[in-house]
Amino acid sequence: MIERVPLRAENDCSICVVTTVMGLPYTYERVQEDSEKYHKVAKDGKGLAWWEGYLRDEGFTAFYCKFAGLYALPLYKGDVVGILGMDIPHLKTGHVVAVNEVGAVDPADNAPDHVGLQEYVRNRVLDGVCFHIEWLAVTKEQDRVSALRTPGESI
Hints:
By secondary structure, the protein is an alpha+beta fold. 23% of the residues lie in helices and 21% in strands. It has four helices and six strands.
């Protein structure tokens, strides 16, 4: 089971979520320091998913899956976790959460440790959130994820 790493600063949800997904021995401080080696903003000013390269460099297998693949996570009994992105139009920002076989793990202030996926998605959609159509599956068990993989997609 993954452990929630709560926000420590206003815009550090990606550090918290990557730390959550990677688990021990990765700590917030280590991921924050390591993240400095990666570009976080594109030339057009949009944020980059710097964690893709970081996960790969640290020996994790990561690839994008269609949104519906989130509901297959319980089949993997914790061997596969992920990062789900969303846009929050009324705040003009984005956000990421960790996902696992139990549900969503949101680093936001006052968020519970885990929320069932259907409940989390429903509540966020009612809040005006637009989820990304794909999520990043992450594992150390490369042979366990073939059913989730989006054909032809990799990072």
